[in-house]
Amino acid sequence: MIHSEMVPECVNAFLDYSTTILNKSPNSIKEYYYDLSMFFKFIKIHFQLTNETDFDKITIDDISMDTVRKIQLNDIHAFIAYLAREQKSKATTRARKISTIRIFFKYLSQKADSMYTIETNPAQNLETPKLDKRQPKYLNLDDSKKLLQVTDSVDNRNHQRDYAIITLFLNCGMRLSELVGINVTDIDFSENKLTVIGKGNKERTIYLNHACIKAINEYLAVKPKTGIKTDKLNSQKALFLSERKERISRRTVQHIVYTKLLAAGLDPSKYSVHKLRHTAATLMYQYGQVDIRALQELLGHESISTTEIYTHVNNEQVRDAVENNPLADL
Question: Cα–Cα distances in Å, from 260 out to 193, 247, 264, 266, 288?
Fold first, then answer.
């Protein structure tokens, strides 16, 4: 939860700018808030502006612009070192906080109102720690089919709904937040396409194949028509409903995926909802001969570099490449 009265006014101004002008998602705003709160707590210790030894009890609402303007690159480096040594933060965590600090000081140096403006940006030459490139975990084709078969074979009152959910994840590569946010009116059955709201409230189109349309229609045939709650979740418009006849929650979807993975003999600690997104992207790239730019558009990635993690190849493909070398039989 964001408590605006607990941070410096320049941070509040930055958060407002990020929300209204940069159109950042609520999750991004929360991350900015927590990252900058931690940074300024460290600054109070670093600049000897507090005698409080309990980090969590340090208040930062009294930090002035004079203090902010004194921050230099070496002070930021000291904070990153503190994260690594004292907090044992991973490189990915430090990289995120560096990104927040960089965006914040860029705002103060270029966009802020005159009362929050700084003449020199101390984060201008701030570097990001080198990250190890990790290959995404994903289900292979056989395991994906097994998951679908198990989900379809369990005949319970929600089996059409659960099957449609798994089908959409594995065929479309959508995010969890995108799936729970789907309204029936978002689906264009004449064009076999779906509109979703992705990161940063960006709207994009996902095209639905035969399996998706079939699964959705079978679910709609048994979906409750009455007793649906009228609430702030807009449940009456929702595609997927819970047992309580309200828009299905993220937690419920995560539980569905967990139980279906377990039933399919797959390790739910190794795979998750997001891994199904990885699976869809990987299978489309490996078997569908999808252009990387088209895959980027489908997944809603802002940067092509994010999509490029799906261009990995498995060991069998490497083996086949060697075996199929025209010089192999000489």
Answer: 26, 20, 6, 9, 26
Contacts of 309 (CB under 8 A, 6+ apart): 133, 135, 136
Going along the chain from its start, the domains and CATH numbers come out as: 4-116 (1.10.150.130), 141-315 (1.10.443.10)
310 is catalytic: yes
Confidence bin at 280 (pLDDT 50/70/90): confident
Q: In angstroms, what is the C-alpha Rg of the chain?
A: 24
Q: Is residue 3 annotated as part of the catalytic site, yes or no? A: no
Query: Does the annotation mark 210 as catalytic?
Result: no
- pLDDT computed for residue 307 by the predictor: 67
Q: Helices 159-172 and 210-222: crossing angle, nearest 10°?
A: 160
- Of residues 275, 277, 278, 285, which has the active-site annotation? 277
Q: Would residue 274 show up in a list of annotated catalytic residues for this protein? A: yes
In 3D, which of 127, 9, 28 has the Cα closest to residue 68? 9
175, 247, 260, 278: the catalytic one is 175
Does the pTM of the predicted model rise above 0.70? no
One of 46, 106, 214, 274 is an active-site residue; which one? Answer: 274
List, for residues 45-82, the tens digit of each pLDDT value. Answer: 999 999 998 888 999 999 999 999 999 999 999 999 99
Active-site choice (106, 159, 199, 214): 199
Quick check: is 319 catalytic?
no
Q: Tens digit of pLDDT for each residue in 169-220? A: 998 888 899 999 999 999 999 999 999 888 777 788 888 999 999 999 999 9
- Concerning whether 255 is annotated as a catalytic residue, the answer is no
